[in-house]
Amino acid sequence: MALKKFPTISIVVPCFNVEHIIERCIEALLAQDYPKEKMVIIIVDDCSTDDTLKKVQQYQSNDQIKIIKHFRNRGLSATRNSGINASKSQIIGFIDSDIVVRKDWVKIMMNVLQDPDVMACMGDTKLPESFPQANIDKFLYHPKRGVRKFDEDTPIAIPGFIMGNSFVKREALQKVGIFDESFNTWGGEDTDLAIRLWEKYPDGLRFSNKAIGEHFHKRKLNNLLNDMKKYGSTNYLILLERYPQYNERLSGDWIKSFKGFLILNPIVNLIVKTIYLIFPIPRLIRYFIAYNVIRGARNSEEVIPKLDHKK
Fold first, then answer.
1. Each residue of 97-135: pLDDT tens digit?
2. For the chain, what are the domain ranges?
3. At CA 263, angle to CA 260 and CA 269, rounded to 5?
4. Quick check: 302 pLDDT over 90?
5. Spatial distance between the Cα atoms of 156 and 150, rounded to a whole number of angstroms
6. In the predicted model, is pLDDT for residue 310 greater than 80?
7. Which residue of 23, 75, 164, 174 has the fewest CB atoms within a 10 Å radius of its CB?
8. CA gap 164, 28 in Å, rounded
9. Are 121 and 198 in contact, with CB atoms under 8 Å apart?
10. Cα–Cα distance between 271 and 261 in angstroms, integer?
């Protein structure tokens, strides 16, 4: 279905302990070059323990803003779903609360979604100019990493589509469902929804490198790798069990294959670590991520036997 020039949109902002940046996130959304009467910002606080809610409540008199508070921490999927369920618009946007978007963010996304065949569009994130660029940043924000190699006219496939900076047509969510709240730890909920969208609309997902948000989240490599290990032992295995037809796309074939054993080989690991210490090449971070995901998956004793049994 073709959209009107200015479709109604709701932007869901899930929040948890982001007192340092939430005001800038909100102000950037309020400053969008888009008709105010067509846009609602739904801020969902997931029981923050800092002053996030206090800062959000400063905007409660603004007609564009709706505030929802969780009385217990429910996780990212449930927080986004609370926003979806409170929305009534044709288009639903998602922006993480530590991202500050540029003024033309909404307009660029809506231009892409004007195509009736496009059901969802993902924007780009960049390191803030005020942040020093560490090696991990050179890897995460590399211009050719993931979906960044595609233009707006090229359909993208899983697992590259993530929701932290995105818009989805309501009709698509009505067909495939919303976020699965059983993903209540880090990672996987984006991929699960993206798979359902992609299965229903194989040519309907897009990426725009013009719809930019600055990500005010300074990641440390060790923290990222710990998250990846936990993800490998939990939600990653759920995805592999739920979508065995995409085992290779999701790199599940690495878990019990020779190449997976090679990655986990202590000698290989020592060699790569030594090279990285001497020559900190950002691309080597990809190895460390794969190592930790596979290691997490291998160390899980409860789900791996189920996966083997299904083969």
1. 999 999 999 999 999 999 999 999 999 999 999 999 999
2. 9-215, 221-310
3. 160
4. no
5. 7
6. no
7. 174
8. 16
9. no
10. 15
- Alpha carbon distance 240, 248 (integer Å): 9
- In angstroms, the CA 71 to CA 5 distance is 38
- DSSP 8-state class, residue 248: T
Q: Which residue type sits at 222? A: N
CA distance 15 to 164: 12
Asked if 212 and 105 touch (Cβ cutoff 8 Å), the reply is: yes
Nearest to 201 by CA among 109, 118, 136, 274: 118
Question: What CATH architecture does domain 9-215 belong to?
Answer: Alpha-Beta Complex (3.90)
Beta pairing partners, 14: 44
Compute φ and ψ for 45, nearest 5 degrees.
Answer: -90, 120
Mean of the pLDDT values across residues 225-240?
A: 96
Q: Between 83 and 302, whose confidence is greater?
A: 83
At 93, is the secondary structure helix, strand, or coil?
A: strand
Q: Nearest Cα to 26, choosing from 42, 9, 37, 47?
A: 42
Amino acid at 119: M
> Distance from first CA to last CA of the chain, Å, rounded?
41
**pLDDT at residue 308 tops 80:** no
Residue with tokens 């050719």: 144
Cα torsion angle, 47, 92, 99, 199, sign: positive
Summarize pLDDT for 37-48 with one digit per residue, the tens: 999 999 999 999
Dihedral of alpha carbons 224, 225, 227, 228, sign: positive
Q: What pLDDT does 240 receive?
A: 96
Residues facing 124 on adjacent strands: 212
Contact 207, 148 (CB under 8 A): yes
> Percentages helix, strand, coil for the chain, rounded to the nearest 5?
45, 15, 40
Residue with tokens 């869901």: 12
